[in-house]
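Q: I have 325 residues here and want to know how they pack in 3D. Can you give me a structure?
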Amino acid sequence: MTYEIPKNLNRYSELFLWGMTFKQFGYALICIMAIAFIIMKAVIFPIWLRISVCFPIAGLGILLVFYKLDEKIKDRRNEQKSLHNTSFNDSKMDYFVNVKEITDNAIINKNGAMVAVLQVTPLDFSILSENKKEAILNAYQQWLKSLDYETQIVSRSVSLDISRWLNNLAEKPSVKQNMEHYRIFREWMLEQVSKSTVRNRLFYILLPYWMDLSTTNKTWKYWFNLLIGRVPDTREKSPAYLKAVKKLTERADNCMELLKRCGVEVKRLDNAELLELYASYFANVAKLNNTTVWPSLWLGKDREEKQNVVFKQTKDELASKGFML
């Protein structure tokens, strides 16, 4: 037995009268009253003029009631204000991404939260024995009971990347002796993955620790340098900041230890991995010595060509300053 899923579930609204919602009925009533007022009361004007004025009002009413003109205008305005066509390096992203900096293997948010991110590799629970399942469930319960702070579990689907596995496979001695076969196999695997649109699911656990950002960097040295006109050294770590880093590290270590008892692999993302995680939500990432330095959003082939030119110029500039590319 099949069941058809209703459409536009996110825009469900109760019908009010004659198959119209309350908002549609209100629009129709306002337009009818306006037309009636012009026809019946504005008698000082000739009838042809009154009828001519009523036509645009009737047309507007039809668009509002049957074609949802107001929602289309709202959607268009939201699309113009959205960040779909905004690159990672655009200043508008500063209002969207609530990140002050990434340092000490943690994300420092503007609201005073220091967040550690743990990447968890799941296991296939269904193939385990009953004793193993019970042990894992008990360990998971112990981890949940240990949480006396807010915790967020994030799941996301990404394109399957088998390049690392293929590179490791190429390093095996038996494969090195048959590189031609390996090349054919590599091309076939990449083609099959791209055709099947296989997705990989990643899991992250976010551990926060709240601190007062107003006391992290603005010590007496900060204000003194600001008074004499020097650029303050924001890298200076205050006691409150160091305490927050220590507490968050202890929280992350304890969480990883309890999760490993559940049989899953857990690791804490470092600075480069955190930056790459944010950049991965965009179309492409440029790397310098395996460190993300230029995340960007590529929008079509024309933008891609321009971005390639910009990145090549940046790459040449870094090379001229002694960076190994």
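Q: Anything worth noting?
A: The chain has four domains: 13-80, 99-157+202-281, 161-197, 283-325. The first strand starts at residue 15 and ends at 17.
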